[in-house]
Write a structure and sequence with these properties.
598 residues, Protein phosphatase 6, regulatory subunit 2b, mainly alpha
Length: 598
C-alpha cells in the first residue's frame, strides 16, 4: 500500500542540490534539512563540509542576525545551523574539530565585549560542548594554547551557557587519563578560586548565581566520578582545592565581610550545603535532611567543618540581624519583618551541621545559643513552614543522636574526638535551657487551643510541634536513650511532668489518630461510594476526552485523594493494581464486587 499510494515524497533538498548556484540559506530554509543530514545524505554533507559553508554556519551562531529581519525569524537560521553542527555527524565534527581556523572563528565569540546575546551563547556553548565530547584531544589542545581561556569564559559568566561549557569540560572528557589531565589544567588555571571570588557582594546577582551553581555542580560531579572510578588512586584536584580550609574561608569572608548582601549569603550558603552533602552517618559527616533516600558515600572533609566553625558567629548574627527587607503584603496580612531567604539558608546550614557527629560544631552551636534562637524564630514566624521544617530537622538531629560510651574516630589522619559529653550536653540543653517540653511544646499547644476556642486560626507550626513531640516520645522509648531523655523528663517540675504525661497519653495520642488517614481498601465490606462513582465518571469521560486529558484528570483525582501504589502496598499485599491506568482500577473494583458476599 505504501508504494501503491506513492506516499514517499522526494526531498526538496535533492532538488536544491541539483542547482549549481544553491545557497546555504536556501538549504537551511528547508524543514527536512536536519533530518537529511542525520540520514547521512552524502550530497548534502559534501555541501555542508565545504570551507565556505562551515564558515557561514559558524558565523550564524556567533554573530547577531540582521536587525531588519522579522523578529520571529531572526534566529531561525542560527538555530538550524547549531542543530546541524551538533547532530553528531562525524564528517562535520571532523571538519570543525580538525581545522584550527574554524575553531578560531568559533572561539572569537568569547572575545566579544560583555554582555553576550544569551541565545547565541547557548548555540556557541552547545556547539563547543559537542566538540569537547567528540573531538576531545584536538579541542583541549586548542584551548590550552589560548591565553587565559578560563578568564574569557568567566568574563561572561552572567550568561548561564558559559557555566554549562565549564561543566562540559569537567564531565565529558574521556578516557580517564585525559580527564585527569584536563582537571589538573583547570586547577592550575585556578578555576575554583576564581569562581569563589565571583560570589562577592560587588558582583551582579546573575554572575554570583551561576558561579555558585557551577561550584555545586563541580562538587557533585567530582564526587560522583570518584565513586565510579574507585580503582584510580589519583584524587580530583578541583575537589581537593575546593575542600581546602583556605578556599572555604575566602568564601565565608566574601559572604560576611563588609556590606551584607542577601544574594551573596544565599549563593555562598548553597555551596556550603553542597559540601556537607552525604549519607554516611559517621563522625564528621552529615546526613542531608533534604535528600532522603539518596545514598551518597561521600565523607565531609575535616577542613570544611573547621572553616565553617570559625564563622558560626556570623550566621548567629545573621539570624538576629538579617539584611533589611521591605514590608511585605501576604495573604495573612502585612508582614513588617519578612524572614528572608538569607536567614532561611542560614537555618538550613544549621540543620545540616547538627546532623554531623562533630563535637566541636555542636559545642560551638551550644555556646552561641543557636538552637534557642532558632526556636524563638520558629514561633515568631508562625506561618513560615520553610523555617519550621529546618528547625524541626535541628531538634531531630539532636534528639536522634546515639549515646556513646567511648571514643569515636575520624579517618586515620584525624584526631580522636570524645563525643559522649557533647551529645549528652546537647540533649540536656534542649530540655533545660531551651525548655523544649515546658514552653516550646506544652505552653505553645495550650496557647493554640485558646486561640482556636476564641475563634482564631490554628497556628501554622502546629503540625511541626506534633512531629517534634512524637520525636521526643519515640526517643524516650528507645532502650539506649531511656536513661537520658527519660531522666530529663523526670527532672521537670511536677506540674509540667504531670501535664506532659497527660499530653502524651491523651492529646498527642488523639492527634496522631486524627492525622493517620486510613487508606482505601477495596476488599472492605463498605466501599467508598465517592471513589466508585468518580472512577465510573472517568470511565464515561473516555468517550468525550483524549487519552492525554484522561491521564491528567486521573492524576488529579489520585493526587486529591492522596492515593499511590506504595500506600496500597503497605496495607494489602494482595492488591497489585495501580491507579495510573484507571481502567485497571475499575476492573479490579468489578472483580471485588463479584467476589464479595452480599
Amino acid at each position: 500500500m505504501f508504494w501503491k499510494f506513492d506516499l514517499h515524497n522526494s526531498s526538496q533538498i535533492e532538488k536544491l542540490l541539483e542547482k549549481e548556484d544553491v545557497t546555504l540559506q536556501e538549504l537551511l530554509d528547508e524543514e527536512d534539512v536536519l533530518q537529511e543530514c542525520k540520514a547521512q545524505n552524502q550530497r548534502l554533507l559534501l555541501f555542508l563540509s565545504r570551507d565556505s559553508s562551515m564558515l557561514d554556519l559558524l558565523n550564524l551562531i556567533t554573530h547577531e542576525p540582521p536587525a531588519d529581519r522579522e523578529e520571529r525569524l531572526r534566529y531561525k537560521f542560527a538555530n538550524v545551523a547549531c542543530e546541524l553542527l551538533t547532530c553528531d555527524v562525524s564528517l562535520i565534527n571532523d571538519k570543525v574539530g580538525g581545522d584550527e581556523s574554524l575553531l578560531n572563528t568559533l572561539y572569537s565569540f568569547l572575545e566579544q565585549t560583555p554582555p553576550l546575546n544569551p541565545l547565541l551563547a547557548s548555540f556557541f556553548s552547545k556547539t563547543f560542548g559537542n566538540l569537547i565530547t567528540r573531538k576531545t584531544e584536538q579541542v583541549i589542545g586548542f584551548l590550552k594554547k589560548k591565553e587565559d581561556f578560563i578568564g574569557q569564559v568567566l568574563k561572561h559568566l552572567d550568561t548561564s551557557a558559559m557555566m554549562d561549557l565549564v561543566l562540559r569540560l569537567i564531565s565529558s572528557v574521556e578516557p580517564v587519563c585525559l580527564r585527569q589531565e584536563v582537571l589538573t589544567w583547570l586547577n592550575d588555571e585556578r578555576l575554583i578560586q576564581r569562581l569563589i571570588e565571583l560570589i562577592h557582594p560587588h558582583s551582579d546577582s546573575e554572575r554570583q548565581s551561576n558561579a555558585s551553581q557551577a561550584l555545586c555542580d563541580i562538587i557533585r560531579l567530582s564526587r560522583d566520578q570518584a565513586s565510579v572510578l574507585q580503582e584510580t588512586s589519583e584524587t580530583d584536584p578541583l575537589l581537593t582545592t575546593h575542600e581546602l580550609q583556605q578556599s572555604i574561608d575566602v568564601l565565608l569572608k566574601n559572604m560576611f565581610e563588609g556590606e551584607k548582601s542577601e544574594v551573596c549569603i544565599v549563593n555562598g550558603t548553597q555551596v556550603l550545603l553542597t559540601l556537607l552533602e552525604t549519607r554516611r552517618p559517621c563522625v564528621e559527616q552529615v546526613i542531608d535532611p533534604c535528600s532522603q533516600g539518596l545514598e551518597k558515600p561521600y565523607t565531609v572533609n575535616n577542613s570544611i567543618l573547621m572553616a565553617i566553625q570559625t564563622h558560626l558567629k556570623h550566621f548567629h548574627h545573621l539570624l538576629l540581624n538579617p539584611p533589611k527587607k521591605c514590608v511585605m503584603l501576604t495573604t495573612m496580612g502585612i508582614l513588617e519583618e519578612p524572614f528572608g531567604n538569607a536567614r532561611l539558608h542560614g537555618s538550613r546550614l544549621m540543620a545540616a551541621l547538627l546532623y554531623t557527629r562533630a563535637p566541636r560544631i555542636h559545642h560551638e552551636l551550644c555556646q552561641l545559643n543557636m538552637i534557642n534562637l532558632l526556636l524563638d524564630l520558629f514561633f515568631k514566624f508562625s506561618w513560615n513552614n520553610f523555617l519550621h521544617i529546618q528547625v524541626e530537622h535541628c531538634v531531630s538531629a539532636i534528639l536522634n543522636q546515639p549515646t556513646t560510651n567511648g571514643k569515636t574516630h575520624d579517618s586515620p589522619d584525624q584526631i580522636q574526638l570524645e563525643t559522649k559529653d557533647t551529645q549528652n550536653s546537647d540533649k540536656s540543653d534542649m530540655f533545660t535551657h531551651c525548655d523544649l517540653i515546658k514552653h516550646r511544646i506544652l505552653d505553645a499547644w495550650e496557647e493554640n487551643d485558646k486561640t482556636q476556642e476564641a475563634g482564631g486560626m490554628r497556628k501554622g507550626y502546629m503540625g511541626h510541634i506534633t512531629r517534634i513531640a512524637n520525636t521526643v516520645v519515640q526517643n524516650a522509648e528507645r532502650e539506649q536513650e531511656q536513661t537520658q531523655i527519660s531522666q530529663l523528663i523526670k527532672d521537670l517540675p511536677e506540674d509540667y511532668k504531670a501535664r506532659w504525661e497527660q499530653f502524651v497519653n491523651e492529646t498527642l495520642t488523639e492527634t496522631n489518630k486524627k492525622n493517620t488517614a486510613d487508606l482505601v481498601r477495596f476488599h472492605t465490606k463498605t466501599p467508598m461510594p465517592l471513589l466508585k462513582s468518580s472512577f465510573i465518571s472517568i470511565f464515561l469521560l473516555t468517550q468525550v476526552f483524549s487519552d492525554y486529558q484522561i491521564q491528567e484528570m486521573t492524576a488529579n483525582f489520585v493526587d486529591q485523594f492522596g492515593l499511590n501504589d506504595d500506600e496500597f502496598g503497605e496495607h494489602d499485599s494482595s492488591i497489585s493494581v495501580t491507579f495510573s491506568p484507571f481502567t485497571n482500577a475499575i476492573s479490579h473494583q468489578k472483580q471485588e464486587k463479584h467476589s464479595r458476599p452480599e
